[in-house]
Design goal:
Elements (H helix, E strand, L loop, with lengths): L1 H24 L11 H69 L6 H17 L3 H20 L3 H66 L1
Helix pairs in contact: 2-4, 3-4, 4-5
């Protein structure tokens, strides 16, 4: 009993000491040692970093998907615009071809009033239409109409359109000469400015070659 009693007393004393130390000093003095609070903090920090990385990755992925969606929408819109423009151009060319065909097929009769109406419509095309081919065809057909009106004795009407056509041709010639003059002026200015520039470049190249030769000469002499 003595030995057992002593061992039992020691164990009771040891466990009682643990209870007291845990109550007084906390986990720092506990036995067996509990997980240190600093480890818990480190784990929490790692989890926070991982959560932040996951959130940033999610945001980045969402941005990439959003940008891709925007690019897709813009491409679709651009495709639709080009499709509409092509369709409009096709319709414009189709209408122009039909109008050109109608102008060419236009014929004059022996009725001066009817011919006057045709000439008025043709003159309207010359003044307002954008296509040069339509204008040329209309001018050509107006000249035919003027000739026909003269044959019918409608000199006043024929003179009216003849004067309008003459004014149009003079204006067109002036516009052409003006464009030609502007082009010529730019060419002359280009030559005037270009010659000194070319001379300067040539001179600079010669000076550079001279400096290189002089440098090599100093090295090898």
């Amino acid at each position: 009993m003595g030995t057992f009693g002593n061992s039992f007393s020691r164990e009771i004393g040891k466990n009682t000491g643990k209870v007291v130390s845990n109550a007084v000093f906390g986990d720092k003095w506990s036995t067996p040692h509990r997980i240190n609070s600093s480890v818990n903090v480190k784990v929490a920090e790692i989890k926070a970093v991982q959560a932040k990385a996951d959130a940033e990755a999610t945001i980045k992925k969402s941005k990439i998907e959003y940008d891709a969606q925007i690019d897709k929408i813009e491409l679709e819109q651009e495709f639709e615009r080009e499709k509409i423009e092509m369709e409009q151009e096709f319709q414009r060319q189709k209408m122009e071809a039909k109008l050109l065909k109608d102008i060419i097929k236009t014929s004059y009769s022996n009725d001066s009033n009817s011919n006057y109406q045709i000439l008025t419509e043709l003159w309207s095309l010359v003044q307002s239409h954008e296509s040069e081919s339509i204008k040329k065809a209309a001018v050509s057909k107006i000249e035919d109409g003027i000739f026909k009106m003269k044959q019918l004795g409608s000199n006043e009407e024929s003179a009216f359109f003849e004067n309008r056509l003459s004014e149009y041709k003079i204006k067109k010639l002036k516009d052409y000469n003006k464009k030609k003059l502007i082009t010529t002026i730019f060419i002359i200015l280009g030559v005037i400015i270009g010659i000194p520039v070319l001379y300067y470049l040539f001179k600079s190249q010669q000076e550079s070659q001279h400096m290189i030769k002089h440098a090599f000469k100093k090295i090898f002499d």
